[in-house]
Amino acid sequence: MKIALLAGDGIGPEIMEEAVRVLDALRLPQVTFWRGDVGGAAYRRHGHPLPEETLKMCRAADAVLFGAVGDPECDNLERHLRPEQAILGLRSELGLFANLRPAAAMPGLEDLSALRPEIARAIDLLIVRELNGDVYFGEKGTRTTPGGQREGYDVMAYSESEVRRIAHTAFRAAQGRKGRLCSVDKANVLETSQLWRDVVVEVSAEYPDVALSHMYVDNAAMQLVRNPGQFDVMVTGNLFGDILSDQASMCVGSIGLLASASLGEQQTEFGTKGLFEPIHGSAPDIAGQGAANPMAMILSAAMMLRHSFGREEDAARVEAAVAQALADGVKGADLGGTAGTKDIGIAVAERL
Ligand SMILES: NC(=O)C1=CN([C@@H]2O[C@H](COP(=O)(O)OP(=O)(O)OC[C@H]3O[C@@H](n4cnc5c(N)ncnc54)[C@H](O)[C@@H]3O)[C@@H](O)[C@H]2O)C=CC1
Ligand SMILES: CC(C)CC(=O)C(=O)O
Ligand SMILES: [Mg+2]
Fold first, then answer.
1. Where does this protein hold NAD(+) (predicted)?
2. Considering the entire predicted model, what is its pTM?
3. Which of 250, 275, 288, 317 is the most exposed place for a label (fewest CB within 10 A)?
């Protein structure tokens, strides 16, 4: 099992250390870790946020464990040199079009939520976010209007094949869960979304056992807070999925708890090749303080074990250890506790 570890910027190295601690504690057979530079750290060392050797390492690995990228000191670089381009580049170069972001209340831990416990208790949803298209990858730039003003533009576009493949992923995910799929778009205003909706409806003919519904994204944001328990699987585009998943994290408790898997079509000896990362960013406001919650990173490692290595039992062990640590009161500052990054990593490893 060849695992590329890309810690990145900000809290990335701190939380990665704890994920590796937990993986080490599992004593898995035949694991090889490779470490690569990415993001602002890579820019400083190699002049590029995604150096060729890092990309090569990721191509050769069975899975990539990714911390976070983003560094305020790099915010004024030309866009192609900014740290965030590294994660966008990896997602597109590795063909990772399906981003799975589960959000579920942990039994007995509903009081972690920013919502009332009786509302939070019912949360068990999966956001399936398209990851290779949309406004993040469309033509972009700045130009001058005829009136002489500066104008920024980013083209939002989806081809039908891009929508079709993520729709299949989402319908299959719904089949393996409660059989309900809600497609989130803005078809009342956007042509991109109308095509999205039409294609999702076409694909639905192949999944008569899945109940399909549609929701506009503004309503979906509201419904996630009003009654998140109504959702099973949500499928949406890159931009809407990015925003809704950060929102869903607070419905569960903290952005420091939500993990993700980014998958494509490439199979490895053990499962589906993927990149696994917390849904949050590099949190520069708390970097270097040992104050970050590493649970989202640790849970991303669990998703890696499940999806890329077919090790369901080990994945479940890690998830149970995280839940047990929380039940025992091991909470970071994001959850109102006092445990530091390392304390949390050790506590999870001890509960495996
Ligand atoms: N996949 C990636 O690498 C991503 C990178 N970014 C980048 O990260 C940088 C910071 O972006 P922000 O908008 O501030 O989002 P962020 O997710 O890094 O932080 C938002 C807030 O949540 C807190 N937070 C995040 N993760 C936490 C954790 N594990 N434990 C405790 N608190 C946590 C932060 O302290 C901050 O107050 C930017 O450069 C951004 O572009 C943002 C999102 C994803
Ligand atoms: C390019 C990233 C910074 C986008 C993001 O926020 C995410 O994937 O969660
Ligand atoms: Mg995001």
1. 281-293
2. 0.98
3. 288
